[in-house]
Write a structure and sequence with these properties.
alpha/beta, 25-stranded parallel beta sheet, 12-stranded parallel beta sheet, 58 strands
């Protein structure tokens, strides 16, 4: 269900493409936009876990232990699962449950996955902790460690298929010598947030194995290595989701199977190169075939004599000349350090190692299980100080109650790093990195009875995620009711820092930087396309240095009529697009934020009003009684009624055409506040606020300054200390502005 919601949201979300905020339109701003110093005076310091020898643990585990032992320090178990069994027995056989049990795990690598905790593993009166013991790293590994010395040089016909520059650099390894079979390395699975693989028979249902070198994800051999090919003339858009985008969605599409792929032309050089490849039976392409925010991959069905290719899968939005993509899974293109190719028939791995250090760590992820799962029936379980790595699934899934994941390192997972639901759970002081999709997925809470999830993700380092799916993934993908994301550092990702939906969630004191590196139509913090997600608060976050190249994303983005959001006390620095982009919603509060050097400051548009009254670009969503906007309003009112009409803003909304100028008419951008913000930029302006927003909402007391004029008001502008001096020009002219606690933002 969640996936379908996201698809629907994006399918109509052509705001930037249609209203003129495309990459091309931004170019004038790119020329003016020059980053200033990165922010300092933040509290982003790493809190290292103080490791200690765990005395008087109930059970011990060692890679050199014996599962036939008694689990004492002198005779430890060999596996975590055996310790789990012992814990279960202790809980079941105890006449008086102990308040706590501890399993101390000694340093080493444990090739264990599928560890599942349930009601037998703890109780409401007994908490259980699985913790590392002393110095050294405790690793739970879902992969196979490959020995560098086992690789050999490539020769014969295979060497001839490689470029002359790469032939003597590429190494090969027979995976069968490690006892691996086809099931261990699997079929290639479609990637991207908009892939259509699930609608085709015989498609992969599990992620394939991946190769990691010194913890970094390697690349399946591709062409081009570090750029894209442009989609040529399209002769067949395929059986796509929106055949005439942005026309109405073809709803029958979801019911059909094995839709027709698309056909488009290759340029002469690309066609010649493709025709030179000897084996294209499992050739794939990844790209942004229509919109630059919609990534997907597909096998190539055929390379045609008329210099076109036909894809196996369709793109949800068809194929458009000028889209861009690359080919992958091609042995002949194994020509750059970090690339690899698996011959799935022979079981041979070909690899171009970044270096040939004999001590390098090479791992092939083989398990398709979560490494640890804390099921919904479990409670009071703590995982402390462990490293989880190398799985084709999630690394860690928490659906229980009162559980803690602390001081852990989570890396090299194909899906998400940590997936948290349940109630009263905590993820704290962890590092989650090199993840295929979201670093952390956080949900919990129930609309029925309006119950808080009260789950918290705090003080973590979340980086290098979205390495497989590039769009609509986040450092924290937040939903549910009453959950908190605080004091995290989130960075180095192709798309969002925090994506959220739900109600009364809090995103606060996070330092988010170097995200949204491969998209313009997105935000470092992003929500949208709902009238019902009232009560969320975004406060005291620092967002800086987002976007890259021609990509000009927004800092905080309340997308397509998102309503009932509160954003205050945030600091936005070096934002190449809009600092705030508010897509026409209602009852939003944007107050007391500090914007320093944004390309286009604040946009608050009236897309629903304009669509309805002026037949603007958003018209298809609000012109008819059964259009999407009215559906969303009715859904919001039903939701609000179910929780006792908690939100007045939702209660006031109506669809009474005889009262079109009433503030409650759902298309009107009413009840919002944009005030007491400080905007410092070269343009010296607030931004672009629609006239109807000013009519139906409060827009006032926003102060603007030039960058040069503001320098002296900061503690140390040149070195990125943007705290405002007490007696400065800005301080005097913005007396209503409340001080932002810079030294509380970030990790503690």
């Amino acid at each position: 269900m969640k996936k379908k919601i996201i698809i629907s949201a994006v399918s109509v979300g052509l705001a930037l493409a249609v209203i003129g905020a495309s990459v091309g339109t931004y170019m004038s701003y790119i020329n003016k936009y020059e980053p200033i110093a990165s922010p300092t005076a933040l509290a982003y310091t790493k809190s290292d876990r103080q490791k200690a020898l765990v005395k008087n643990a109930d059970f011990y585990v060692s890679v050199n232990g014996d599962d036939n032992g008694d689990g004492t320090l002198e005779k430890p178990f060999q596996t975590i699962k055996r310790a789990q069994q012992a814990v279960r027995e202790a809980i079941a056989n105890s006449e008086e449950n102990k308040a706590s049990l501890t399993v101390a795990i000694m340093a080493g690598t444990y090739y264990e996955t599928g560890i599942a905790f349930d009601e037998r593993d703890s109780s409401k009166s007994t908490s259980v902790t699985y913790t590392s013991y002393g110095d050294g790293e405790v690793i739970l590994c879902g992969g196979k460690i490959l020995t560098p010395a086992d690789f050999s040089s490539v020769n014969g016909e295979t060497a001839k298929r490689l470029s002359s520059q790469a032939a003597d650099k590429v190494k090969m390894l027979d995976l069968k010598k490690y006892g691996l079979t086809k099931s261990d390395y699997g079929k290639i699975k479609a990637t991207g947030g908009f892939n259509t693989e699930e609608y085709y028979d015989n498609a992969a249902t599990e992620n394939p194995c991946e190769l990691f070198f010194n913890d970094k994800r390697m690349t399946i051999a591709r062409y081009p290595n570090d750029s894209y090919i442009t989609v040529g003339k399209v002769s067949d858009i395929g059986d796509c989701y929106e055949p005439n985008a942005p026309a109405p969605v073809d709803e029958s599409w979801l019911e059909r199977r094995n839709q027709r792929g698309g056909t488009f032309a290759l340029d002469e050089d690309t066609y010649s190169r493709v025709k030179s490849w000897q084996n294209t039976n499992d050739l794939w392409a990844f790209g942004y075939f229509y919109w630059d925010w919609a990534d997907m991959s597909t096998p190539i069905k055929s390379i045609n004599d008329d210099k076109t290719i036909t894809t196996e899968y369709c793109s949800k939005y068809g194929f458009k000349e000028g889209g861009y993509y690359y080919f992958f899974n091609v042995l002949e293109e194994l020509d750059a350090p970090g690339e690899y190719y698996i011959d799935r028939d022979s079981g041979i791995l070909y690899f171009y190692p970044p270096d040939e250090n004999e001590n390098s760590k090479i791992m092939l992820s083989t398990s398709n299980e979560n490494i640890i799962s804390i099921t919904e029936k479990a409670s009071n379980i703590t995982v402390d100080g462990l490293t989880l790595q190398g799985t084709r699934a999630d690394a860690l899934n928490v659906a229980g109650e009162n559980c803690k994941i602390v001081n852990c390192t989570v890396k090299n997972a194909a899906d998400c790093g940590i997936n948290v639901s349940g109630k009263n759970n905590l993820v704290e002081n962890c590092e989650v990195a090199f993840i295929g999709k979201d670093a952390v997925v956080l949900s919990g809470g129930s609309a029925e009875g309006f119950v808080y999830g009260s789950n918290t993700v705090t003080n973590n380092s979340l980086h290098d995620y979205g390495e497989i799916q590039k769009t609509y993934i986040a450092g924290v993908n937040l939903s549910g009711i009453g959950n908190v994301v605080s004091h995290n550092e989130i960075y180095n990702a192709p798309h969002m820092g925090v994506y959220y939906t739900g109600n009364e969630n809090v995103v606060e004191y996070n330092y988010i930087h170097d995200v949204v590196l491969q998209s313009s139509d997105a935000g470092a913090i992003y929500t949208g396309y709902s009238y019902s997600t009232y009560g969320n608060v975004v406060r005291y976050n620092c967002i800086s240095n987002i976007g890259s190249g021609t990509f000009t994303p927004s800092g905080i983005y309340f997308y397509d009529n998102s309503s009932g959001q509160t954003a205050y006390g945030n600091v936005l620095i070096n934002i190449p697009g809009y600092a705030f982009l508010v897509g026409g919603g209602r009852d939003n509060m944007i107050e007391n934020n500090l914007v320093i050097n944004a390309g286009k400051q604040i946009l608050y548009d009236d897309r629903a009003y304009d669509g309805y009254h002026n037949d603007g670009w958003y018209a298809k969503n609000c012109k008819t009684p059964d259009s999407r906007l009215w559906q969303l309003m009715n859904e919001a009112k039903e939701f609000n009624a179910s929780i006792g009409n908690k939100y007045d803003g939702i209660e006031r909304m109506h669809q009474d055409y005889e009262r079109e100028e009433d503030e409650g008419f759902a298309v009107n951008p009413s009840g919002s506040s944009v005030q007491n913000n400080i905007i410092i930029s070269k343009q010296n302006k607030v931004g672009e606020i629609a006239k109807t927003v000013k009519k139906y909402s409060v827009v006032e007391n926003n102060q603007t300054f030039t960058l040069n004029g503001a320098k002296s008001s900061f503690e140390d502008y040149e070195n990125g200390d943007y705290r405002i001096k007490a007696d400065s020009k800005i301080s005097k002219e913005c007396s209503d502005f409340k001080e932002i606690p810079f030294n509380e933002i970030g990790r503690k």
